[in-house]
Target: UDP-glucose 6-dehydrogenase
Amino acid sequence: MKITVVGTGYVGLVTGTCFAETGNDVTCVDIDAAKVSKLSGGQITIYEPGLEKLFERNLKENRLQFTTDLAAGVKDAEVIFLALPTPPGEDGSADLSYILKVAEQLGNIITDYKVIVDKSTVPVGTAEKVQATIAKNCKCEFDVVSNPEFLREGVAVDDFMKPDRVVIGTRSERARKVMGDLFGPFVRQGNPILFMDEKSAELTKYAANSFLATKISFMNEIAILCEKLGADVDMVRRGVGSDDRIGKRFLFPGIGYGGSCFPKDVQALVKSSEDADYDFRILNAVMDVNEKQKLFLLPKINAFFNNDLKGKHFALWGLAFKPNTDDIREAPALYIIDALVAAGATVTVHDPEAMENVKRLLGDKVSYASHQYDCLNDADALVIATEWSVFRTPDFEKIKATLKNPLIFDGRNLFDVARMQELGFHYESVGRAASTI
Ligand SMILES: NC(=O)C1=CN([C@@H]2O[C@H](COP(=O)(O)OP(=O)(O)OC[C@H]3O[C@@H](n4cnc5c(N)ncnc54)[C@H](O)[C@@H]3O)[C@@H](O)[C@H]2O)C=CC1
Ligand SMILES: O=C(O)[C@H]1O[C@H](OP(=O)(O)OP(=O)(O)OC[C@H]2O[C@@H](n3ccc(=O)[nH]c3=O)[C@H](O)[C@@H]2O)[C@H](O)[C@@H](O)[C@@H]1O
Model:
């Protein structure tokens, strides 16, 4: 099938590459000329495990092309995916200007039947708006379909190729057939394609992300309670997660959820609810808990240093909002850095993939260490903000020998508390007793 993907960011690039990998002829369109030039030249623009190999193969075999020219890019397409940004507007609602702008352009461009697919995360009613915007100038038939994306960064290729489900919102038989054929190869393993109306599909995406965020905030509050009552959140998590009705996943407490999606999508659903004259109380609490959780380690750090961080120096491991990505959008590490620097401390940071992005954002606000152990030089303590595998089994003797104090504040519960005690560390984590020296 001939497919065009408009917007070649995270979702667009994964979508385009995976469709090419399953034998489709894919053109990706982006207004960012530098990005298009890099991608056309074979240089991948995001860090995503497993994607580069597929990208290179499909580019070489001419199933994947890139252009800045929307009209040329969509000319032969049967299906046009819109994988455009939907950032939060000032009032927290999703900003639809990117999508509606392209919809308006498409109305003037398309001359034969196309299925136009909202892949972006968009509020209920957007498919209708896109339909109306295209229809203003369009002289041919077309359908607008809602097909939200559920991939996670870091495992995006697997999530796209073997999805738990594909949600397709359309009431058009013609579009349903096209989308069913296109996604058939991805759901052969038995997971379903769920056909529904456009509004239900749009709400499914927000409900899924908001529910996952709720699970995380819930466990973060349980972790706080564990510390107050002397329980161990690791034990509680296992005990709770063994119930199939609850499930083991997304119960890991930490320093809050970040990334480009949970924070903005929970906020957007709250705003949609307000617009519909409904106060979504649970989600307001979820956001509130998450805001506080990002700075969960700060009182512990302050308490250790008697509320005087002036002149103290911290090593910080992990900048990405989660492992296996270089994405630092809404990363809890950034909030910790802000708080430490505001209190008069200095920080040296290390991350396996996200250093360049942080350098662009923070410049000389922090210092950078290209190796995780160099990061520890002259530091009063180590703070861990992201659970990269490479941080899970470090050389503890080296850490102890390099840090000024054997002191670790771990926002991701990487180590066993009793072991840290044996090794002679003062070790503080989330929802578990501290090991003290
Ligand atoms: N990043 C993720 O893991 C996931 C994101 N989503 C949703 O997918 C949507 C896209 O997200 P990302 O890929 O992360 O965004 P992104 O910000 O990485 O990429 C968006 C791309 O669109 C391009 N663009 C902007 N205006 C354009 C125009 N007029 N014509 C052509 N290209 C244009 C930008 O240059 C950029 O390359 C959002 O709604 C997001 O909520 C959904 C699931 C997962
Ligand atoms: O709409 C989106 O963009 C995507 O948002 C999330 O994916 P992603 O943001 O890539 O990352 P997650 O693995 O969901 O993690 C999000 C945040 O939650 C945190 N988290 C996750 C799980 C957990 O148990 N505890 C926890 O604190 C992570 O550290 C991270 O900061 C969803 O998992 C995807 O299904 C969805 O498609």
About this structure: The radius of gyration is 24 Å. Residues 6-12, 29-32, 35, 83-86, 98, 101-102, 120-121, 149, 151, 153, 260-261 surround NAI (ligand 1) (CB under 6 Å). The chain has a mean pLDDT of 96. Residues 297-428 form a domain with the Rossmann fold fold (CATH 3.40.50.720).
